[in-house]
Design brief:
The protein is 36% helix and 22% strand. With 446 residues, the chain is α/β, with parallel strands linked by helices. The chain binds 5'-deoxyadenosine and iron/sulfur cluster.
Length: 446
């Protein structure tokens, strides 16, 4: 039995792609393994968004080269595949830099993985052309696992923020049709999935073919999905403020299955920096969107992405980011030091912010965001929340699930509750998870 090891870096889109590549390999007769030493095929699904992410790939490939040589000594072949955004950005360069690599395949080409593996027996191969056919039409059926699943509905980005490689690695915005998405979601729900997170680089820019041939936007898609019997929860990520249209904001108050959680990257609180970043909105617009979402969904939990140390960012401009965070209040967030990415407009800009200043700003921002996260988690203590049970918990007799705000909860209940919503009274907030006890419906209502 041949074995395949698939490792994914970076965002949820990559996690989805990695799962689909695993499906392709399974259909080819490979068994998944988590032990890289025993794998006949190793797939690294790479991320190019920040410098560190891309560097990790080359150090991993160095280790794999040693492993491949050791396996060859005992007569075992190892095929090494580099997939994902580093593959797309660097293409044949990877073959030059990493001699152990057999296949380089971009995010739009992995439906051809079987063919590429076969061809690599003769010659090392690179496939990073944007294909004319839709990869989703050429992938084997999804093997579902678990209660909560990602579903790619849109890929690519047309926004061209000055710091970002995505428009180059993932290409232009493309949306799948409502019918294709509903079919995939229906199959997932039949397989036991109860929560679906719609993913895309710019998911709220979704515009796919609708049922009547007209173009459908994200609210239309969400309404189509909420009608699938058995779906309990819907989420979507990640979004751009300029695509938070009025009907999408309204949907947050109208679609009960749409969870009260919004990840809306803002990057900076300074209008000068936002303009330089080519975000095409100002801080006030962001505040206004948040206020409108809160008006229709007062319990919404907010999340965002931030970049500190963008070229030319002054202390005063950074303070504006801190002020925006203090004003809005986030339940969770991702924050990064700016790192120049080759090929992006900002990569060559003058006035870089010194590393120590970046570090200081990042520490200050993360300190504030951590405080907000802890306060948000602590506020759950004493409340009763609906938990979607996903799996057995850390200890026997426990199960683990998530609140509508995406917080992990552990509590005592039989594993027969997996896949159901259970009202849980939160008794304690740990550093990574909440702890609670199941309450009867009657108690929850009291
Ligand atoms: N440097 C630092 N952070 C970046 N991001 C994207 N590109 C860069 C970069 N060059 C961050 C943004 C984006 C998130 C996915 O990654 O905050 O929203
Ligand atoms: Fe990158 Fe900006 Fe597109 Fe997001 S919106 S993927 S940050 S270019």
């Amino acid at each position: 039995m041949k074995k395949a090891f698939v490792k994914s870096y970076g965002c949820q889109m990559n996690a989805y792609d990695a799962a689909r590549m695993a499906d392709v390999l399974t259909a080819e007769g490979y068994t998944p393994t988590e032990v890289v030493e025993e794998a006949d095929v190793v797939v690294l699904n790479t991320c190019h968004i920040r410098e560190k992410a891309a560097d990790k790939v080359y150090s991993e490939l160095g280790r794999l080269r040693v492993l491949k040589a050791a396996r060859a000594e005992v007569g075992q072949d190892t095929t090494i595949v580099v997939a994902g955004c580093v593959a797309q950005a660097e293409g044949a360069e990877i073959l030059a830099r990493a001699p152990a690599v057999d296949v380089v395949v971009g995010p739009q080409n992995y439906h051809r993985l079987t063919d590429l593996l076969a061809r690599s027996r003769v010659k090392r191969v690179v496939d990073t052309e944007f294909p004319v056919e839709d990869k989703f039409d050429h992938l084997p059926a999804r093997r579902t696992q678990g209660v909560s699943a990602f579903l790619t509905v849109q890929e690519g980005c047309d926004k061209f923020c000055a710091f970002c490689v995505v428009p180059y690695t993932r290409g232009a915005e493309v949306s799948r049709s409502v019918a294709a998405i509903v079919a995939e979601a229906t199959a997932l729900v039949r397989g036991g999935v109860r929560e679906i997170t719609l993913i895309g680089q710019n998911v709220n820019a979704y515009h796919g073919h609708g049922a009547d041939g007209a173009s459908a936007n994200l609210p239309v898609l969400l309404r189509a999905l909420q009608d699938i019997p058995g779906i309990l929860r819907l989420r979507y990520t990640t979004s751009h403020p300029n695509d938070m249209a009025a009907d999408l904001i309204a949907a947050h108050g109208e679609i009960p299955a749409l969870m009260p959680y919004l990840h809306l990257p803002v990057q900076s609180g300074s209008d000068r920096v936002l303009k330089a970043m080519n975000r095409k909105h100002d801080a006030e617009t962001y505040r206004d969107i948040i206020a409108r979402v809160r008006a229709v969904r007062p319990d919404v939990a907010l999340s965002s992405d931030f970049i500190v140390g963008f070229p030319g960012e002054t202390d005063a401009e950074f303070d504006e980011t801190m002020r925006l965070v203090a004003e809005i209040g986030f339940a969770s967030a991702y924050s990064f030091k700016y790192s120049p990415r080759p090929g992006t407009p900002a990569a060559d800009w003058a006035d870089p912010v010194p590393e120590d200043v970046k570090s200081r700003r990042l520490a200050a921002l993360q300190g504030l965001l951590d405080d907000q996260r802890h306060a948000f988690n602590a506020a759950a203590v004493g409340t009763v929340v609906e938990v979607l049970v996903e799996k057995a918990g850390r200890h026997p007799g426990q199960v683990a699930g998530k609140t509508p705000h995406l917080l992990p909860v552990q509590f005592d209940a039989p594993t027969s509750t997996i896949g159901t919503l259970v009202p849980v009274r939160i008794v304690r907030a740990g550093s990574n998870s909440l702890f609670g006890e199941a309450v009867s419906d009657a108690a929850a209502a009291a």
